[in-house]
Amino acid sequence: MLLTDVLHWISLGMIFFYAIACLVRPRFVALKMGHVLNTARGVSEFRIQHGGFFLGMGLFALYANHPLVYQALGWSLIGAGLIRIVAIPIDRPPIPLSLSGAVTEIMLGIFMLA
Fold first, then answer.
1. Is the separation of the CB atoms in 77 and 108 below 8 Å?
2. Mean pLDDT of 93-107
3. Cα–Cα distance, 49 to 3 (Å, whole number)
4. Is the Cβ–Cβ distance between 94 and 63 less than 8 Å?
5. What's the pLDDT at 53?
6. 3-state secondary structure (DSSP) of residue 15
7. 36 CB contacts (<8 Å, ≥6 apart)?
8. Is the entire prediction scored with pTM above 0.85?
9. Radius of gyration over alpha carbons of the chain, in Å?
């Protein structure tokens, strides 16, 4: 097993952890992220978009096991992290949480690019 494989597995593990948490406890995860889920439709959409999407992407990455798939996931995570940083002065979210989220996304994205 190569170091790149280990980095991919770490990133995929985090993606799966997030996806499963969103599937099983969408209200809890949403609250930690600052989302308020007021309706059953909101809970369902959060579960689908955050749990189902990330679970599907992670499973496809495992199935395909192709560098291009890992790169696509990596650039998506890096893009999310960079936009999170850009959003700080615009939206003024809690900075420690936003920066930790950005660092995590960028780090996992870099792991996927390895």
1. yes
2. 91
3. 31
4. no
5. 96
6. helix
7. 30
8. yes
9. 15
CA-CA distances (angstroms) from residue 69 to 11, 32, 62? 13, 29, 9
Residues 6 or more apart in contact with residue 108 via CB below 8 angstroms: 10, 11, 14, 15, 74, 77
Residue 100, amino acid: S
List Cβ neighbours of 113 (8 Å cut-off, separation of 6 or more).
70, 71, 74, 75, 78
CA distance 104 to 78: 9
Amino acid letter, 2 = L
Cα angle 87, 90, 94 (rounded to 5 degrees) comes to 65
Confidence band for 97, pLDDT divided at 50, 70 and 90: confident
pLDDT at 94: 85
61 membership: H or E segment, kind and range: helix 53-64
Total length of the chain: 114
